[in-house]
Amino acid sequence: MGVQVVGRALAQALQQEFAASQAAAGTWGRAGHQCAAASSLPSLRLWEAQQVLSASKLSRKEIQKSYEHLFKVNNRSIGGSFYLQSKVVRAKERLEEELRIQVLEDRDRAATQKVTTWLLPPHPPISNL
C-alpha cells in the first residue's frame, strides 16, 4: 500500500517536471537568445519549494533543519531517491534565493528611508503659547 502511494507520487512529480521542462523549452525557443534572464529563472516556484521542505515561513534555521533531514533520509546509500534528494536541494536553493532577495529589498528600503529623512527640511521651532 505505502509503496503504491510513493510510486504514484513519484510518477506525478516526474510528469510535472517533464511538463515544466517542455514549457520552459517552448518559451526559450520562442524568445530566442534575447531573453538571457530566462535561463536564470528558478526551477521551482516559491510555494513549491516551501511545500517540498515543509517550510511554513522563510527562516534560514527552519530551511536548513528541514533540508538536512530530508537530504539525509533520501540518501541513495540507505535506499532513498536521488530524484527526491535533488528536489530537496533545488527547493533549498530557491528558498535561499528568496531570502537573499528579501535582504536586498530590506537594505534598499532602509537606504531609501535614510536618504528621505536626510532630505527633509528641519522642523521649525515650536513656540510656547
List keywords for this structure.
mainly alpha, 4 helices, 129 residues
Question: Structural class, judged by helices and strands?
Answer: mainly alpha
Helix content estimate? 55-70%
Tell me the radius of gyration. 23 Å
Number of helices: 4
Architecture overview:
The chain is built from four helices and no strands. It is mainly α and 129 residues long. The chain is elongated.
Q: Would you kindly provide a brief summary of this structure?
A:
It is built from four helices and no strands. The longest helix has 38 residues.
Topology diagram in text:
Layout: H1 2-31, H2 46-53, H3 60-73, H4 82-119
